[in-house]
Design goal:
alpha+beta, Cyclophilin, 2 domains, seven-stranded mixed barrel, ATP-binding, nucleotide-binding, CT_A_B, ATP binding, PxpC
Length: 338
């Protein structure tokens, strides 16, 4: 009733949708960087959307399963297999006792999310099982995974899980899932929307125009705290800057050498660098999946436009989830021949 980590990969940790409401106390939210991929994985295996998934970065983990279970892996492009069976993104599979999940191609991968039916037994802190690497709490002992770790599965199965186990006993995989073309509508574009914050007043109009005219590349200096960009340096005013300013997920800070940084889920809660603005929430998942060397173009939008875009994004996501639910209902209606 567990998974055994044979290779922890580069940076693998358990994340749910985060622990919200504590940033004023200096506690980071954590949570899946690509929340859309996280939720798709859970929906495909019949879980609640906030059930923790295993977030794997760049080099994925190698995992052995000690009993049958249902899995789905979402997120970045990858090649994976279990024995002779290929594992494709955003599909539903049944694995058996002794099966080993291995990723064989990481060149295009950024982050992948593994969900298992019923979820994992993890440490809960402040209502969340997300791993807070700074406080070393939540998830699996508050840290990333390493070879030899054994994580129990909760086996908290509902009627839907039991039916999926039955339906996939012979075929081992469902005939449906989420295709890459559908998801490309969210991830493909390199344009990132930015909402001006009060801190944008610390930059000249010419500097802000330069920021939105030029391209910036993602560097290798990227983790769950943030992403350092490479491009034309940005000139900012540092005189009379307050020693501490509130920051949030998506804040774009500018270091003293003119380098922009996009903050992500594990960001510090106070900062002292000038801020160009905040990335629109609906583009955070896209940024989190961009590989090193990817080019980004930034576009300022106002609050009204951001709200309209967010409504469109939510509608698209809901349509996607409705499609998954429709296929799941069809799966539940199947009569399995003995």
């Amino acid at each position: 009733m567990s998974i055994i980590i044979e290779d922890g990969g580069l940076f693998s940790s358990f994340q749910d949708l985060g622990r919200k409401g504590y940033e004023h106390l200096g506690i980071i939210a954590s949570g899946a960087l690509d929340s859309l991929a996280h939720e798709i994985a859970n929906r495909l295996v019949g879980n609640d959307k906030n059930e923790a998934t295993l977030e794997m970065t760049h080099k994925m983990a190698r995992i052995r399963f000690t009993e049958p279970t249902l899995i789905a892996i979402t997120g970045a492009h990858f090649k994976a297999h279990v024995g002779d069976m290929s594992i494709y993104p955003s599909k539903l599979y049944r694995l058996e006792k002794g099966d080993v999940l291995t990723f064989t191609d990481h060149t295009k991968s950024t982050r992948a999310y593994l969900a298992v039916a019923g979820g994992f037994e993890l440490d809960t802190w402040l209502g969340s099982t997300s791993t807070d690497m700074i406080s070393k709490l939540g998830g699996f002992h508050g840290r990333t995974l390493k070879a030899g770790d054994e994580i129990n599965m909760k086996r908290d199965y509902n009627e839907r899980h039991h039916k999926l186990f039955e339906n996939l006993e012979k075929s081992k995989k469902a005939t449906w899932g989420v295709d890459g073309y559908t998801l490309s509508l969210n991830y493909l574009s390199d344009v990132i929307h930015v909402i001006k914050s009060k801190g944008a007043e610390d930059f000249t109009e010419a500097t802000k125009k330069q920021f939105t005219t030029n391209e910036y590349k993602l560097t290798s200096k990227a983790n769950r705290v943030g992403i350092v960009l490479d491009g034309v340096p940005i000139k900012a005013y540092y005189d009379d800057m307050p020693p501490h300013q509130a920051v949030k997920r998506g804040s774009i800070q500018v270091k003293r050498d003119g380098t922009p940084i996009i903050l992500l889920n594990d960001h510090y809660t106070l900062g002292s660098y000038p801020q160009l603005g905040t990335v629109a929430s609906y583009h955070i998942s896209k940024i989190s999946q961009k590989p090193q060397g990817a080019k980004l173009k930034f576009q300022y939008i106002d609050i009204e436009q951001a709200e309209k875009n967010l409504i469109k994004y939510d509608r698209w996501v809901n349509q996607l989830f409705h499609c998954i639910e429709f296929k799941m209902q069809e799966e539940m209606a199947k009569v399995v021949k003995s």
